[in-house]
Amino acid sequence: MNIQTGSLNTPPKRLSVPGIVALCMLLILLVIPCGEALAGGTHTTIPVEPSASEPGDEIFTSEVVSRIGRFRSPTRILLDDDGVLYVSDTGRGLVALYNQDGVRVGTLAGVGRPLGVAILETRVPAPGKDLKKKKKKKSKNTVKKYIDKTYVYVADEADGSVKIFDDGELIGHLGDGPVEFARPNGVAAINDLVYVVDSDEDRVAIYDKDGAFLYQFGTTGAGDGQFDFPTDIAIDACTEEIYVGDLRNKRVQVFDLHGNWLRTIYPPLNDGGDPIFINPAGLGIDPLGNIYVVDNALCCVAVLDPFGVLLDVYGYQNGAYWTGELQLPIDAASDGLKVFVTSGGEGHVNVFEVTP
Amino acid sequence: MNRYHRTLEAFALALLLFAAPATAQALDAPHNIVECGQCHSVHGATYPNMLGVLCESCHYESGPATAVKTHSSMNTSDKYGDWEVDCWSCHNPHVQEQDDAYATSYGMFLKVDRVAEIKEIDPGAAGPYYFPLSILRTVPSSAIEHTDTNTFIDGDIDSDDDVCQVCHLSTSCYNTGAEFNTHTNYGTDSQPLGLCTSCHYHDDGFGAGGSCISCHALSQGAGDYRRQVTGVGGDFQRLSHHVSDGTTTEIVDDPDCQVCHDQSNHQGISEPEVKLLDADDGVTSYTFDGTGASLDTFCLACHDSDSSQAFDADGNPGNGYQPFVDGKTPTDIATVWTGSSHATGLTTEGCMSCHGGSDSTTVSQPYDRNVHGSAFTSLRSTVVASETVPNEDEGLCLACHDSDGTASTDIEAMFAGTENFQPASNALLNTRHDVYASDETYSGARMPCTACHDPHAATSANTLVADPDPTDGVMPTAGNSWAGSSWLSEWCLDCHDNSFPSSVTPPTNALVNIATEFPGDQHGGAPGDVGIVLEGGYAQGDILDCDVCHNRGHGDGTSSGTYPNLANLRAIIYEVDGVTPLIPDSSWDPGNPEIVRVLDVGGANFDATTNGKAWCSTCHASMHGNKGCLSGVCHNHSMSTF
To answer: What element of type H or E holds B83?
Structure first.
């Protein structure tokens, strides 16, 4: 990836991916608190203003290296720790699972119009274990009290619900089920909590892993912490910061896990002085904390650092949008080495390689 | 142009710019919440009319407005070239014209009495907006009907005034009485409620004919006129089916159908055809002529070394040519098929001899001869009811490989033996490989014919697969496990090392690991007893191949009679030349001087602990004592005395 500082006109300062990965691993090994390591120890609460840019000759080059799947209407995308892609296909009413070789490895069916997908790895009481009862005497037998579970949460625009899947089986809903949300869109999960963007109600609702409503944040408007058609949500597990795409306000807002507003990322400007994104329809985040803002109108993906500094753009070449690399993209996911973007116009997931 | 005109022009331009905000205020709901600048860009616009971003910036999946796609060759068919009817051919995004003209409240932003344009596009252009290269056709419309909620899409033929008919009375596609008028054949079946959009969805670009799978989710018409291929009970929900992600969920989609089916005359005015499309050139059609063999070229165009060159699920032909949404690479059959026994023998039905014919007990119904899905694995055909062997894995093979079948070899007769026993190793064994379902009830083992034979590749000279256990990473090669062993012995040991391929269910009690034991056997690498006199040209120190003593697994056809050969030992043993039968000591079995049995004389005992002497004495002419040889006490695999 071209890691750049400054505007589009600034010659890029290239950092190698292996170097970044090594640095990240070292930090993890040293158990340095992520927030301190990546955010300088404190969260800024200063809005990040649009970065100025002069028209120049900067050229971003991005090229689709492969395509995965064939969908009727690919919308949201998630990449799990095993490298499996979860792609919601609203046209077909399912979430398709693909490996990165393009082979379909599974399906989550029974969703009317699936949008956001989130995965939560958690632990639940083992069957038959009543954890409230105290044991009369200790046993040397190591009977598991908990078992590991991987829950998948899928927003269903059709009935206004977020469905919970366990091992491919539908096991429940968040809240009251259907019509819990006016329009559930992006979904994310962390620390046994599930965050759901309700686009039509301009809010983010938080539930526990079993579906109990906890609290919400966001109101309609253009101020800090307000939304006008929020779209997608992404959580940086390292810094525990939440990014929310705010479509009609043409910005990305950043919150802590409790919904406290931290800062706003406005779009940097392109060579022509126009915002690099105007329709933040989808968000992705990679292990390095880089944010991928997907603009379905300009058909590009802007890669930003956590404070909105432009690092790279996919689908934008020689100062022009609509390069054909992306056609009506909606969402993106990345493992730091590849970027996977749902291309609604083509019906594929387009894959970009992060340039070292 | 004089100064006056330039001044006038500048004034007009300024007036237009100042008037723009006022126009925004005049937008009809719900577009009245959209600002001019959200659609129009004075700077850097790349599209005429200063359009910056278009309708799809809001009208997209997960977006704030209903997702739609434009009606174009990209979303329907390019039979008539590369064309698009863009949004504003039907809609005026500023004003609810139909409401103003007819005092309705449909809220569709439909144009009224306007000229529609069909525009040429370049499908190879960057997109997603296919900027018009030219105006292919201008279609003047009559007044569009808006007297009721759905009248603008009612598809009626009494009045030509709905929004679809504006063009489709002037084009050759789906107009009344011309080509591609599918509705003539299907009548009201194809026009539920009379609404065009019941089948032609706006979010799918008004695809011609609607969705394959939406129509074929139900069987309709006399004689299964429209076959049910999807939905509950449909072909693609059978046990095995093309296009699968390994789950029971049906994932086949319209583009999957179009990989195999040429729709050029599907739904034609005359008798509809379901032609088949060449997966490599994407153009050549194949027509079923009543014989399955007429489809072989079609099948093998995809099932070859380069899979489908014309279709690729991800639009990326360079990475494998997987045609279906499942992303799987089709099995390469063509490479091994030519010259195989089945290719040369099954000239009438070809591939369809074994595959297709999904739910019929015969193949007399042409519409049942498809490979959408089958109630049996590997899209296998249904065995006709008159067959004696149940339609398990082995049933299909033995339907032909029997006494009255078309195959030259009667394998079913070889498997007629039903004996089983329990040797010293404590394994429960049948006298043959466990291919019948009934065999599994005794041994727990089950193996399909295809564990040993590849029906696509087998020839009379080479009936066996190259590597029966590809999971262990060992390719059978002469001398692989022990010095001097033949390829065939190595081939047997590929499974008799107690490592089995996934298609084989091993026996409940583990077999002797012959791959480990045999090198220590005196029949293998260990020195033999020099006191034993051998017949048939065999000598001390010979390493015997497996098939010197054993049949290859089919059995010898004996069944619960006097002379079952346990452990599938040969009924006739050959001299070292492999051709000349060895004549046994007739004193052991006076009634059958040329057939040797494991069973001792008299046939009283079937267990391996007391018999075998007659059989062993065929080679071992001078033996000690008068007791059974193949006992758990004296001689057996896994013993140093064997």
So the answer is: strand B83-85
